[in-house]
Amino acid sequence: MSNPCDTGRSNATDAPALLPERAFVVEFSSDGGPARDDDLSGRVEHVVSGQAARFASAGELLEFVQGVLRSGKSTRKKAR
Prior knowledge:
Layout: E1 24-28, E2 42-46, E3 52-55, H1 58-71
Antiparallel strand pairs: 1-2, 2-3
């Protein structure tokens, strides 16, 4: 029986390791209505540093991701 979730991707042993320094969690907002092509908003957080931002467009999302990756900040902020 084939796996319905199989997308033809190589298995984990063939794929390069995922680096936490380059990982982000993205949560997309929804106003409850039908999504439009230009509707892209939500919140993004860098997994390692904990830096987070809200975005209202794809450009803002990419700007945040690129800024974090360029800065090289890969240490989690200490809680006070």
